[in-house]
Amino acid sequence: MTCLRYLSQLNHQWKYVQYLSGVDVPLKTNLEMVRIFKRLNGTINAEVTEFPRERFKSAKNKKFPMPLWKSSLSSLLPRATVDAMVQSEKVRDLLSFLQNTYCPDETLWTTIGGNPAELPIPNSFNATAIYAKLLNERSKLKDNQNSSVSKVKKIWASTKNYQCFGKIVSGSCVFGIGDLENMLTRPELIAHKFYFTLEPAAYFCLYYAVRSRAYDYESQTRFQGTVYEQLPQVRMAAGAKLDDVKFHFSIN
């Protein structure tokens, strides 16, 4: 939150912030990301998943400050949302509560953005209604389908129908050379996670491929990112009803 407070105080007119870890690799060029951010049109882009009950067993205060939701560590937050977050006493209370839970950064973003009744901040959404719709559409989910584009979905040790070509570390996949072919066609902005100590060529080859694309004038001219306007968060912010949007679809 210290970093967000610093960014909020800057005079520079930035539009989005993406929270990342030190083992992430970009899948999009800078120009592609900028065009995607413009298509998101000021909406929050974060996963909406059920909060794992076992994560609050260590919490000293079991009274939740608001309904809790789990998301990816990496989420996309527009400036208006960040400006409101750093000024909110309820957000500070939530941060204090989460200090005694497991992986608090994975609980933060959707809990803040997904509780408009408890925390009315700009660009908030009804996580309860969205999660119910997600469950209803889950049977239609395919490998290249997603509604959160911030980060490539983790491959966990228990994940079925997904192969990790690198190595499972701390329960999730450290991507290797064999994962790159699929990675280069993903619609998400970043991939998590890559280690220099495990098939470092995977990191360098992926970085080189994205960097090379940045210098491809024709490729960068063609990429407009219009399909990202079909993401449910964007469509609902533009007035579409929840029943009329899809949460699992191909955006390749």
Strand order of the largest sheet: 1-5
Q: How many DSSP E strands?
A: 8
Radius of gyration using CA atoms only: 18 Å
- Note the overall shape: globular
Q: What's the assembly state of these chains?
A: single chain
Structural class: alpha+beta
Count the DSSP helices.
Answer: 10
How many independent structural domains? 1
Notes on the protein architecture:
The protein has one domain (2-244). β6 and β7 form a beta hairpin. α4 (89-98) runs antiparallel to α5. It is α+β, with helices and mostly antiparallel strands and 252 residues long. Residues 155-159 have low confidence and may be disordered. The protein has helices at 2-9, 30-40, 79-85, 89-98, 105-113, 127-137, 180-183, 200-214, 217-222, 232-237; strands spanning 16-18, 24-26, 49-50, 69-70, 76-78, 167-169, 172-174, 190-192. GO terms for molecular function: acetylglucosaminyltransferase activity. Belongs to the glycosyltransferase 14 family.
Task: Summarize this structure as a short list of keywords or feature phrases.
two-stranded antiparallel ribbon, 252 residues, signal-anchor, acetylglucosaminyltransferase activity, transmembrane helix, alpha+beta, 35% helix, glycosyltransferase
